[in-house]
Amino acid sequence: MSKTSENLNSKLPIELDNVDGKLFSRLKKEFVCEICAGQNFLIEEDERGYSTKVPCQCAGHTRRIKLLNDAGIPGKFAETQFDTYHPVDDSQRLALRMAKDFVSDFGPEVKGILFMGQPGLGKTHLAVSILKALILEREVECKFVDFFQLLSDIRHGYSNDLSEQALINPYVNAPVLVIDELAKGRNTEWEQTMLDQIITSRYNAADRVTLFTSNHEDNSEESQNRNNSSTDGRINLSKSYAEKVNPATLSERLGPRIYSRLTEMCRFVKLEGEDYRPNVVVHTRAKPHLKHSA
């Protein structure tokens, strides 16, 4: 099924659809370039007097469309942009401002952002809005990946004789990458190895920027001060075991090596508030009423 969204930028004749769960972009059907009459090129005379083809400025639309379609953004974010994010408190307003500043300040020295907080605060919304703005405004190559889904794809690739490197290379080499749902999963040694491989490769490359979202918050100071003693001084073994098996903080989930790299690669932005999803009204088509025969 396809659901057409409004154009992100009224100056660009591009429309975005949700097609089978994937973001799909295309030129508006009614668009015809007034400069080249839809040919995508112009005929100009070079220094020697020879006629030669040169790309029309509308060729940029084709490049943007390809970048959007290759970015891997889920189709449910077809309508997502900065203007559709509605912050309700100071932390969300700050996150929105930092996301917009990231786009306007984008360049060799810019650091990534790690959006963290409870589910339903718009972390992925902001990350996707950044990717769309970079593609549409600056024609920057970007990639989006749900880390848990990437792990699933790698496991599936084993049965098709695909190497791990072949599957992760597009994400390792992308100039801008969003890793969604960081630290989600069982946190096995293999999962940690895959994550470390991607992050270390990007950490060592000076020309790549990475953004993250995570439901696990950075609370390392509290984590360091945490103890396993109850109020009467006895050790709470059940609490100690639970925290060891399923650590709650981002630093505990990632481990010191990966976490240390993130602190150098990104600015940490914590969003607070309540999950907006329970307040979303879902309209469903009513089923026809069937009369029972007597």
Protein traits:
single chain, 294 residues, alpha/beta, Rossmann fold, 5-stranded parallel β-sheet, 3-stranded antiparallel β-sheet, 10 helices, 10 strands, disordered N terminus, nucleotide-binding
Question: Could you walk me through the main structural features you see in this protein, from its secondary elements to its overall organization?
Answer:
The protein has 10 helices and 10 strands. The protein is α/β, with parallel strands linked by helices. Helix 2 packs parallel to helix 3. This is ATP-binding protein. InterPro entries: IstB_ATP-bd, P-loop_NTPase. One of its GO terms (molecular function) is ATP binding. Keywords: ATP-binding, Nucleotide-binding.
Detail the topology: elements first, then pairings.
Elements lengths: L1 E3 L9 E6 L2 E6 L13 E5 L5 E5 L3 H12 L19 H15 L7 E5 L6 H16 L3 E5 H13 L4 H10 L2 E5 L8 H15 L5 E6 L5 H6 L11 H9 L4 H5 L1 H10 E5 L24
Parallel strand pairs: 6-9, 6-10, 7-8, 8-9
Antiparallel strand pairs: 1-2, 2-3, 4-5
Helix pairs in contact: 2-3, 5-6, 6-10
What is the spatial order of strands in the main beta sheet? 7-8-9-6-10
How many whole angstroms does the radius of gyration measure? 24 Å
In whole angstroms, the N-to-C terminal distance is 39 Å
For the record, the CATH class of the largest domain is Alpha Beta
Mean model confidence by pLDDT: 81
The low-confidence parts are: 1-8, 222-247, 281-294
- Could you give me the name of the CATH homologous superfamily of the largest domain? P-loop containing nucleotide triphosphate hydrolases
Please provide the count of β strands: 10
What class would the helix/strand composition place it in? alpha/beta
What percent strand? 15-25%
The main β sheet shows up as:
5 strands, parallel
